[in-house]
Amino acid sequence: NDIRKYLHIFQTPGLPASSIITAVQQQDYSASVWLRRREKLEHSQQKCIVIFALVCCFAVLLALIFSAVDIWGEDEETEEECTSNCSIVLVENIPADLLFPDNTTFHLPLSAGLNNLLDKAERVVEIVSPKWYLNPSDDESNLLTRLQELKHKDIQLKITTGEFNSKELKDLERNHDAEVHEVNMTALAKAYSYLHSSFWVVDRKHFYIGSAGMDLESLSTRKELGVVVYDCKPLALDLHKVFSLYWGLEHKTFMPNFWSKRLFPFFNRDRPGNLTINSTQFETYISSSLFIPKDRSSDLEAISRVIQQARHFIYISIIDYLPLISMQRYWSGIDGLLREALILRKVRIRLLISCREETHPLTFNFIWSLKSLCLEEDNCSLEAKFFSFQRDGSLSGINHNRFMVTDRGLYIGNLDWVGEEFTHNAGAGLVISHPGNVAEKNFTVVEQLQAVFERDWFSRYANTLQTNKIPVCSKQHINKSVLSKSRIYMLSWSLLKVNHL
Ligand SMILES: *[C@@H]1O[C@H](CO)[C@@H](O)[C@H](O)[C@H]1NC(C)=O
Ligand SMILES: *[C@@H]1O[C@H](CO)[C@@H](O)[C@H](O)[C@H]1NC(C)=O
Ligand SMILES: *[C@@H]1O[C@H](CO)[C@@H](O)[C@H](O)[C@H]1NC(C)=O
Ligand SMILES: *[C@@H]1O[C@H](CO)[C@@H](O)[C@H](O)[C@H]1NC(C)=O
Ligand SMILES: *[C@@H]1O[C@H](CO)[C@@H](O)[C@H](O)[C@H]1NC(C)=O
Ligand SMILES: *[C@@H]1O[C@H](CO)[C@@H](O)[C@H](O)[C@H]1NC(C)=O
Ligand SMILES: *[C@@H]1O[C@H](CO)[C@@H](O)[C@H](O)[C@H]1NC(C)=O
Ligand SMILES: *[C@@H]1O[C@H](CO)[C@@H](O)[C@H](O)[C@H]1NC(C)=O
C-alpha cells in the first residue's frame, strides 16, 4: 500500500522497515479509534439535533392544529358538479304600504321561500343572522314556531350569531334543542366588528342568502331581496363551509393564523363552479369577508370581478354608499372600480341608494364626484337615485336591498357599501354570471334581477339627485357639514353650467 512505498523511498539504513511500519500502523490505529470516537460523538450530537428538531416540529404542528379552526364531522363530500341540478328563485319582502302599479312583477315572498326551505329540511338547518327577534304567534306558518318545531321532526337546528344574550336564541337553545354558537367578533377582529352574514343552509343541499335577517323588520316592514336555491349541493356545501367557520369560532378570542383545509372552498372567482341553474349554464361561487381561508374570494374581490366583467351596464341597489373607512380614510375599493368602468370602459352605471335619516351627508358629495367624472365625456353615464319613503312622519331606510346586477351577472351580499363594512365586518355573498361567450340569453335569474332593479328605479319612490337641492335624507347631520357641502354643490353646479354653455 501507499505507506509502504512511501517508507521504502525514505528508508533510513539500520532501522528495520517493519518496525517503522508497526509504529505507523499503531499511530494509524489510534488515530482511527480517535476518529471513530469523534464520529460517534458527532453522530450522537446529530441525533440530539434531529430529535430536538422533531420535537420542535411536533410542538409547532400541535400549535397549528389547535390554532386552526376545524370542523368536526362527516365532511368528506365532493362537489358532485355533474349531477347538480340547481334551481333558483328570487325572494323578496315588499312592505304592504309600498305601492307599485298593478302590472308589476313580484317574486316569491321571503317568508314563503324560507318556509319552503323548512319543508325540504330532513337533517339539519344552519342559520346565521345578524339579528334575532321573530315574534312568536299562533300562526302555523310563523317562522319562529316552525323553527321551534324542528326538534319534533328530529331535525337539527344550528345557529351562529355575533349577538350575545338574545332572549329568543336562549329560548330556542333551552326549550327547543337548538345549538347556538356565539362568536365574539370584537375579540376576534380587535375592533368594533359585526357578524353581518345572513344566510341559511339546509341539509348542505339548499340555501338562502340575502339582505334579510331573522327579525320582524326584515320579514315585514323593510324591502328585502335574496335568493333561495334548491338542490344545489356544490354551492350549498361551499356556503356550509362559511357557516362551519363561524361555528368553529365559538369561544375563540383571537383570529386563527391558519384555517383548516376543510374550510377551503371548491370555487372562487378564478375557478368558478360551472353549474346548471334552471337549465342554463352559469359560473358561480360564494364569497365572504373578514374570515378568509385560502382560495376563498373576498366580497370585495367578488364585487370587483363582477364590475370588471360588465360591458354595458351596472345597476347597484344598496343602503349606503360611502367610500370611507371609519370617517378617517378614503377607501377606493369599489369607488375606484366604478370610476374605471365609467371612464375607461364606458359602462353605464345606475346607483339606487336608500334615503334615510342615517344617510351620511358625504354620500351626496361622493355621488357628485362620480357624476362630475362624466362631464364633457361621451358615452359616460352615472345616474343616482334615492329610494325614499315616509313612514310615520320620518324617512325610514325602507329599501334594504344589497345587490348588483350587470349585463353579465349578479352579486347578492350581506354588506353595505361602506369602507369599514368590508374591512371590519363579516358577510357572505353569491356571484352568478353568464359565461363570457354567451350571446343570446334566456330570461334567467340575472335578467329577472335586472327587472327588479328597473321596477324600483322607475317607481315613485326613487328620486333623482337634483343639482340645486340638498336631499332631505340626512336631517340629523345637516348642520355639521353644511358648509363644506354647499361649497361642493356650488362647484359641481358651476361645472354643470359650464358644460351647458
Ligand atoms: C333536474 O330538474 C328538472 C326539473 O326539476 C327535472 O326534470 C330533471 O329530471 C332533473 N334532472 C336530474 C338529473 O335530476
Ligand atoms: C305597466 O303599465 C304601464 C301603463 O299602465 C306601462 O307603462 C308599463 O310599461 C307596464 N309595465 C309592465 C312591466 O308591463
Ligand atoms: C368579547 O371580547 C371582548 C374583548 O376581548 C371582551 O371585552 C368582551 O367581554 C367579550 N364579550 C363577551 C360577551 O364575552
Ligand atoms: C369551468 O369551466 C372553465 C372553462 O369552461 C374552466 O376554466 C374552469 O376551470 C371550470 N371550473 C371548474 C371549477 O371546474
Ligand atoms: C335557454 O333555455 C332553453 C330551455 O329552456 C335551453 O335549452 C337553452 O340552452 C337556454 N339558452 C341559453 C343561452 O342558456
Ligand atoms: C358613443 O356611442 C355611440 C353609439 O353607441 C358610438 O357611435 C360612438 O362612437 C361612441 N362615442 C365614443 C366617444 O365612444
Ligand atoms: C327556476 O325553476 C323553478 C322550478 O321550476 C321555478 O320556480 C323558478 O321560478 C325558476 N327560476 C328562474 C329564475 O327562472
Ligand atoms: C343643528 O343646529 C341646531 C340649530 O340650528 C342646533 O340646535 C343643533 O344642536 C345642531 N346639531 C348639531 C348636530 O350640530
TrEMBL record:
It comes from the Eukaryota. InterPro entries: Diverse_PLD-related, PLDc_3, PLipase_D/transphosphatidylase. It holds the Pfam family PLDc_3. GO terms for molecular function: catalytic activity. Signal peptide: none annotated. Residues 191-218, 395-421 form the PLD phosphodiesterase domain. The chain crosses the membrane at residues 48-69. Keywords: Membrane, Transmembrane, Transmembrane helix. Belongs to the phospholipase D family. This is Phospholipase D family member 5.
